[in-house]
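Researcher: Before we compare anything, I want clean individual predictions. No alignment, no superposition, just each chain on its own. First chain goes here; please echo the sequence and then give the C-alpha cells.
Model: Echoing the first chain and its structure:
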Amino acid sequence: MGRFRARRFLAVLAALALTACSDSAASQPATLSPASSADSSPAAVRAQSLTVGYTPSDGFNPYLSNSTLVMQNAGLLFEKLVEIGPDMELEYRVAESIECSGTSVVIHLRGGLCFADGAPLTPQDAASSLAAAKNSACYGARFANLTSIQVQNDALVLELAEPDSLFAYLCDIPVLKAEEIGLAQPTASGRYTYGSDGNLVRNSRDSLGSDGPAEIRLYPVEGYDEMMRALSMGELDLYTASDQALGNASMTGQETYYKTNNLIFLGFNAQREAPLLNTAQGRSLLGRLADRRDLADKSYYGRAYPATGAINCYYSCVSSQQALNAHADTAGLEETMTALGYVYDTNSGYYQHPALADSSLELLVYTGNTYKKNTAVLLEKQFSEQGIRVRLKQTDDFNAYRAAVEAGEFDLYIGEVKLYNNMDLSPFWEGGALSSHLAQSEALAQSYQAFKSNKSAAGSFESVLAAEAPFSPLLWRQGVVVTTRGLRGLESSLSNVFYSLQDFSFSS
C-alpha cells in the first residue's frame, strides 16, 4: 500500500490530548478586551441572538489558525465545498457534484454564488481555498494524497497519488476569496458576515444557508476553562466539550451530541502464542463476543454508538453491509474454542489451553480516560461471562501506555483513532504506530485497495476485515456540545456545530 496514506494520517491511539482540529476545544491564550455584547438582554431580544466564544488574536481565517474556535465559527462565516450532515450524509454546497475515478477527481461548482460584498464566487476561489487547506495546519494532513489542482472549464480537476473513492468527504472545507487567503478576516461567504459593532449579522447575499438569529454575538475567551465559566455565568450560550470536561454539563448546561469518525477499537497482538490471538479464527471470535451496545450505553453513557464495522455505519456505501453485530454474537463459541485447542474447565469456569501456562489474556488500557477505563472493565466482564479470562493492565501514564503498545507489551489493548472523513484505515497496516503487532494479510490489503478504488466494494472489505480481525471496531465516539439549558433546536454535525441554527430558540 502507498506511502502517502500512511504519511497523511494522524493517528491518535487514545485521543486524549486536546488538539485544536479535533472535536474538543483547545485553550487559546490571548490578551482580550471586554465584550460589549456580553451584557444581560431582555428575553425578547435575546431570542433573536446567540452568543459564542472567539479569540480576537486568532482572527477568523481557518487556514491561518488551528484554533477550535476559529474552525467552529467558520461554520457561520464561510460556505464549504460540501458538508457532512448529522447522520453523516454528504451534502453538496459550493460544489454541485464531485466525481472520483481512479486518481482523478472532478469538482463541478454551483453557479450564481457570491461573497458578502457582492463579488462572485469563482472556481479560482475554490481552487485557492483547496490549496490553502492542503498547506494549513488543521486541514493539511488529510490532503497529503492530493498532488495537483487545476481549473478547467469552470470545474476543479484534481490528481491524487492514489485512488480515494470517498475523497468527496474530505472536502468539507471553507471557501474564501483567492486574494484573501492570507487575511485574518476574509470576506464572508456563508450565513453571517461581520457587523459594524464587532458581532456577526445575517449575510443578505447568502443563497445557500437557512435562516437563523439576526445576530451572533462574539464573546472573547482566553481558553477552555474560560468558556466553561462564561456559560455557567450566562455570558456564553455554547461550547464544544473536551474529553476531560465531559460530565461538567450537568453543572453548567445541557449536552447535545453529534456523530464523529473517532473510532474506539480493540487491538490484538497477533505475535502472541495464544490461538485466540495468532489465528484469524480466534481474533474474529473475540470481536464477535463484544457487546457494543452495552459498551456504548454503560461505558460511554450514551456518548458513543456501536461500531459494527471499520467504516462508519452511517455512510451510505456500507448501509446494511457491515459484518459485526451491535450485541454479542456467541454462536459457535464452544465449537471455535475446541477447534483452537481450548478446553473448558468447569472448576474455574474458564477455557484453558494445554500448551499455555497461562490461558488468560492481558488487556492494556490507559486509565487517564474514564470512558476507556470503563470500556476495559466492562469488556473484561463480557469475556469472562463467555469463559474467557481477561486481566487488566492499567496505566494512568499515557506515554507509558503508548510505549507499551508500540513495544507489543499487550495481548489486547483499547485504542482510539480519529479517522479522516474518507475512512482512511491505512495506518492499521502500513507500519505506523497503530499497526504495531497487528495481523497483516494479502487478502485484507487487496480488499482495502478495492474499496479505495471503488466505494461499492466497502461491504466486501468489511467482511474480510471481520474475518481477518487485525483489530475489532467497538464504538464511534460522539462529539459533545454544551449549551445553556434554555437553548432548544440546535443540531450539530461533524462539519458544522451550527448545522440547524435556523431551528434554535430559547425557552423560559
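Researcher: Okay. Second chain, same rules.
Model: Second chain and its structure:
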Amino acid sequence: MRVWAARAVYGLALGGAVLFYCFYFGQLAWYVLMLAVCLPLFSLVVSLPAMLTAGIVLHAPAAVEREKTCVLQVYMLGWMPAARMEVRISVEDRTHPGQDCARWLHLRGEAPAEWELDTAHCAALRCSVRRAWVYDYLGLFRLPVRRPGAVIVTVRPRPVALSPEPPLPEDIPPLPEAREETPDWKPPRLPLWRKALAAVSGAGAMAIFLYAANVTDLSAVVDKGGLTALGQKQLALYLVFCGLLLILALAIGRRSRPPAQVQLPVEKRRLSRRTTAAAASILLLIPVTLFVGVYYLNNQRYGLVSVLVLLECMAPFFLVFEGRRPQARELVVIAVLCAISVAGRAAFFMLPQFKPVMAMTIISGVALGGESGFLVGALSMLVSNMLFSQGVWTPWQMFCMGIIGFLAGVLFRKGLLRRARGSLCTFGAFCAIVIYGGIMNPASVLMWAGAETLTWKTLLTYYVTGFPVDCVHAAATVFFLWIAAEPMLEKLDRIKEKYGLLT
C-alpha cells in the first residue's frame, strides 16, 4: 500500500472518530478520538530507530551463462527490523543502450525481494538502487534510505562443444621459407628531361626567393609615382616565381605519387552534389559578404562580417552529415586541428609570416575533405586573431585560408594532388604565393587605401611590396609540410579507420 493510500485510510478513520465523538458523548468516544490522534505519533516513535538504521544490500552472481537463471536479491538490514521498505531497482544493459528497465520491490522483515534478470542475450547488466524508502508500522511516514553500490552481472555465452579436428594428410607440401617481402608498387621512373626541368625550375625559384628576401628597403621599390625600376623588376620576378612553381609541380607530379591504397580509387573521385553546392557557397556567398562589408559597412562592422563568414564556412561542413547527426568525436578532431593551428601560430609569433597555419589547413583538407579543410582554415584564423588582434583583415584571412583547405580536399579527391612530400610542399608554396598573397594584397588596398584608390598602379605596388612576405609564408608552409604532413596524415587515417569519421 502506497503512502497516500495509507494516509487516506487514516484520514477516514480519524474522520469516523471525530463523528463518533460529536454524536455520542462520553468517555468511550473520547478514548476513541484520542487513540486515533495519538496512534500515528506512537507508530513513528516506535518505528523511528529502525527507520534511521535501515540499510540495503544487493546480491547477485558476478557472472552467469546465457539463458541460465539469474536472480537479483535485495536484503533489508538494520539494527532493528523495519516494518516495510520500497526499493526502486534499475537494471542497465551497458552493451545494448536503450534496453534499460526498472521496477519497485517491496521488503518486509528479513525475507529478501527477488528479481529474475533477463539472460537471453550476452550483456553486462548494472543493477543499482535509484530510490529507497522505509516506512513506519502504519505506513504514514517514510524516510529515504542510503543507496548501496551497484552490482554488475556479466552474461557470458554458453560453452560450445567443439568437434574433433580432422587428421591432416601426410602428403602436405612443406611451407616456403620466410623471406622479406618487398612492396608490389614502385613509383615510375622520372624521365631525364623531367628531372632536369624540375631541377632548373626549383633552382630558379629558390634563387628568386633569396633575392626577393634580401630586398628590405621598400622605399627603393615604390615612390609617389608608383613602381620604381627595381619595383618593376620585383614584379617581373614575382610572375616568374609563380610560373617556376607551377612548372616544378607539373614536373614532379608523377614522381611523388604514393602507393595506391593512399590515393582514392578512380570511381570515388567524382565530386558529389554536396561538394559542388559547397563550392558554389564558398565562391559566391562569402565574396558577396566581404563586398557588403567593404562598400556598404565601410569596414566598420568587421566583427559582424567575421561571424557571417564563419557561419557560411560551417554550412558546407555540416552538409557532410546529411541524413545523420554529427558525432562528438568527429567534431573533436576538427577542434583539435584548429587548436594545433592556433597554438602553432602563437608559438612562432616572433617570426613574421613564419606560421604553420596553412600547412595544417592543407593537411586537414587532404585527410578529412574539402569542407573540413575550409572550416579548419577559417576557424583557425578567427580564433588566433583573438591573440594577435581582430580587425578588418580577419574576414579576408578566414576566406583565404579556408579556400586553400577546400582546394586541397577537392584536388586530392580528383587525384590532382598527391599525398607525398614533394607534391604537398609544391602545392603549399603555390597557395601561399598565388592564392593567399593574390587575395590579401588587393584586400590590403581596400582596407588601408580605400576602394576609391583601387587602381592598377596601387595594386601592383601592393603586390611588389608584399612579395617578400609571401615568399616567407611559402617557405614556412613548405617547411612544416615537409616535416609534419606524412606523420599527421598517417595518424588521421588511423583515427578515421578506427572510428569511422566523416565517411
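Researcher: What stands out in the second chain?
Model: Residues 1-157 form a domain with the Immunoglobulin-like fold (CATH 2.60.40.2030). Additionally, The chain is about 55% helix and 10% strand.
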